[in-house]
Amino acid sequence: MNIEARITSTPAAPTGFSSIWQRMRSAWWPAWVIFRREIRDTLRDWRIVLPIVILVVGFPFLANFAANRGLTFVNQYGASLIIERLLPSLMLVVGFFPSSFSLVIALETFAGEKERRSLESLLATPLTDLQLYVGKLLAATTPPVLASYVGIGSYLLLIGFTLDWWPPLSLLLVSMTLSTVQSLVMVSGAVIVSSQSTSVRAANLLASFIIIPMAFVLQAEASLLLFADYTVLWLIALCMVVVNVLLIRLGTHVFNREQLLGRDIDELNLQHAWQVFWEAAWPHHGLKALYTREIPAIIRGMRPELLITVLVILVGGMIVGVWGIQRFPLPAEAFDLSQVQNLETIGSIVSQSGLLTSFSPWAIFYNNARALLVAGGAALISLGILALLLLMAPVAIIVYVVGQIGGIGINPWLFLAVTVLPHGIVELPAAILATAQAMRMGDVMLAPPEEGGGVDGILRESGRFIKLFMGAVIPLLLIAAWIEARITPHLLLNFLGR
Amino acid sequence: MIEIEELTKAFDTLVAVDNVTLTVRPGEVLALLGPNGAGKTTTVRMLSAILKPTAGRARVAGYDVATQGDAVRRNVGMLTEAPGLYSRMTGREYLDFFGQLRQIPTPERHKRINELAEWFKIAPAAETRPTGNQKDVLDRRLGEYSKGMAQKIALIRTLLHDPPVLLLDEPTSAMDPASARLVRDTIAQLRNDAHRAIILCTHNLPEAEELADRIAIIRQGRIVEQDATPALKARLLGPPLMEIRLAPPSQNGIVTLIERTIAGYGARVEDAGNNWVRYSTPDPTVTNPAVLQALIASGVAVMTLSEVSQSLEAVYLRAVEGGV
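Output (structure tokens, whole complex):
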């Protein structure tokens, strides 16, 4: 026998549509092959198949039984409406359970291959990273989504035949969409967790970071279904789609052959972490270098984030503020400035509002600094989005208030110049700088740097956030707080002719 | 076929492969030897474009490993250290899966799987295939395979696409002697038949000596020795050592006679005992006939004259540990 055999068949190059089809087929064929193998492997594992079958068939029976008993009970008191409102919520729950259990498949995708030591031979094939990732992602997505559909279908049939309740099309659509996008988000998250873990055990431990938030979302959705508020549910579905796109983007970005084979990928190296953070946070070259080189360099490095921050908070804040004015206009009595008589009354008005403990520079500074630090933390868990929203809120409120002050005969621009501009001209740049850097911390999770990967990137950007915060944001906030507490009230009193 | 220039791979603070330069020509087998953690696997992973080099460059089958990874992987057959099979697949499904990933057309893929399975004796020849309920070994789940069988499947996976470059990490590990012999014969045939370039990572030194045209010894990421086996032996262990055994009874003056005979050839007596003498010589083809002639002329009955085997293990230990 001859053990060498040239693989010779290279078909003639097709043209036109056929050529495009051939190219697409060739590009995605390996992902399809991976998908089929994974699905076949899953279906051969009774430890996965049996619980899913029980959940998609048995659990709807349980839900149906509970609904029937509940209906019988509430009917005694003529409150059948309660249970009728609960039926759609149960539909979501019935869809969620099998899809959350199916997460084990997603968590196994890469971590399982690493444990079996089968990953290296797969990586040695001509598969591209994207083909491998897409194949695995599809294979991990299909069982949870299908399980969810079958679960909901079983439940609906049972409820339909026993209670004669059939969901309206709009409810069915929103429920199926939510179940689908929830499954997709969970799977996309789980595949990332799996690719970044060295064992299935580690991946399962990390999976709680997916299940717990999703359980909260499910509770919120169930509450909204109770109130039949489908608009918000569609918005939640839209948000989930965005999160899913971001997760897939993150997954493909952090997926690399090199790290997949690394054994120290989930090793906790506190010393290294501290080194990376400290190197970025501490002004090693003295104060002069901090202000002449280091902070300017940080600002130069976050130009895109600065641009986005300014655009979102100004344009977004303006839109939200104007929308607020139109949707919730305030009556003229709300702008009763007669109480503003002197510095003491201003202080007591502010204190009574509950926004600040006292109208002092320290209280204002503490409040602003705390808000920006919270924005930094929120950026890390929201890929930067929450930091932007947090800063957009005060701008929207200012637009909302100033936009309506004209209603009582006050020039809004002048009012703005007197009450906001003096301290705002210092405070706003500080807030923009902090928010842009907070956003950068979130961005690093989406596009980790080559050097050190995502964790090092987050630590480095967090260190820079601290450096910028201590070196620029805090001094600016201190100045702004002093102006706001000591100068702005005098200007306001002058403006009001007190 | 494989050209490596100052290839370096660093992981954070660890330099796993440090300035490695090697060449493997078509039809040549290079054995890469070294202790665990020396950098063999990292080197092989870079050559199969799984890991990217930190510095230096490598071309495999004409493609750059850093920039043409897909093309490199298409032309390389890599046998990984662990077979890493999918236990819920059958042998045939597993091989078919890899054949599909390599986009080998279906008829050729099936033909090739059957041929290689026959070659490695894990499936009967076509004419004696089982029928009815009797299952072909290849149609059993991989979870049921022995370690040696699993290794054979991994080897078939490596050869399925008929690659011009083979990177084999411990190809005969876990195999019984007959299977290991079969694999060694296969490697020899692969080199000779199709002029493949083969890198063989192994701890089995006799296997390396048997199969390799050249040996490279890697220690702490660096190539410390690299040459053909005889040249390495000569360089690290000195000239060949010859042993002459004489028929009893022992006679006086033999050592002096041999010393006088070989003095002119740059050789010298290393050791002697009752009826035996060992001498080292840079050129046995000249020295040995002269010694035999002198002894026969003196009426000494020579029983045997042979080279004392100096194992590759001694070479390896000297290179790796700095002493035999």
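The longest helix of chain B spans residues 177-194.
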